[in-house]
Specification:
By secondary structure, the protein is an alpha/beta fold. The protein has one domain: 3-Layer(aba) Sandwich (Rossmann fold), CATH 3.40.50.300. Helices cover 56% and strands 12% of the residues. It has eight helices and five strands. Strands 2-3-1-4-5 form a five-stranded parallel beta sheet, sandwiched between helices. Helix 2 runs antiparallel to helix 3, helix 3 packs parallel to helix 5 and helix 4 crosses helix 7. The longest helix is centred in the middle third of the chain and has 25 residues. 34% of the residues are buried. The structure holds thymidine-5'-phosphate. The site of thymidine-5'-phosphate has 12 residues, from helix 4. The site of thymidine-5'-phosphate (TMP) has 12 residues, from helix 4.
Length: 209
């Protein structure tokens, strides 16, 4: 049995991840690949409950370290119960956000040291790393404008000021540039179908490997 691949989508709010995730699933299914679409924080019943705490605007007093530990508690469940078993069974996993989001939001956004995140990463992920990560990138004003236009009440992260997202975006871009083999940085200000074409080309390469 050939091990499945892990594909992750990252980017700040409003860059169009959900649309591209759905297209990615369809594209892989056209290749007869069995696909599991999931998200972080979330993806299991415990992780979805942790997500509800993390996104709750009534919990603004949570420290950055508590936030990071909750992200990794959710991730541990997600890896142990969904991602590792799926990959072992030959299923490809597509995750709406994963580990890089902790470096972007808790590292860049909240200012926690990358070394603290790396310790948790080693504990929880072991040797698991995404095979391919799409970073959908757009200027903060454009992304936040789009996000605001389509959502209802903002959650705890969406309520952050623009400079939080500026730092998160910069941290994402720095990680992507440091690992060019794994990341594809996509200009998310382009039309949806043009972005999808770039994604499909990268997926086809991975399928052919
Ligand atoms: P979303 O999946 O609807 O975008 O919401 C999840 C929020 O959680 C989003 O604002 C990013 C944030 N987040 C982190 O801060 N750190 C993480 O490690 C992950 C996975 C998400």
């Amino acid at each position: 049995m050939k091990r499945g691949k892990l594909i992750t989508f990252e980017g700040i709010e409003g860059v169009g991840k959900s649309t591209q995730l759905a297209f990615t699933r369809q594209h892989l299914e056209r290749h007869q690949i069995s696909v599991c679409l999931t998200r972080e924080p979330g993806g299991t019943s415990v992780s979805e409950r942790i997500r509800a705490i993390l996104l709750d605007r009534q919990e603004p007093a949570m420290t950055a370290m508590t936030e990071l530990l909750l992200m990794f508690a959710a991730r541990n469940e997600h890896c142990a119960r969904v991602i590792f078993p799926a990959l072992d069974a030959g299923t490809w996993v597509i995750s709406d956000r994963f580990n890089d989001a902790s470096y972007a939001y808790q590292g860049g956004g909240r200012g926690l040291p990358a070394e603290s995140i790396a310790i948790l990463e080693r504990l929880v992920l072991q040797n698991l790393r995404p095979d391919l990560t799409f970073l959908l990138d757009a200027p903060v004003e454009v992304a936040l404008g789009r996000a605001a236009a389509r959502r209802g009440e903002p959650d705890r992260f969406e309520s952050e000021r623009a400079d939080f997202f500026t730092r998160a975006r910069a941290a994402y871009l720095a990680r992507a540039r440091a690992e060019p083999m794994r990341f594809r940085i996509l200009d998310a200000t382009r039309a949806i179908d043009i972005v999808a074409c770039d994604i499909n080309a990268a997926l086809d390469e991975l399928v052919a490997k």
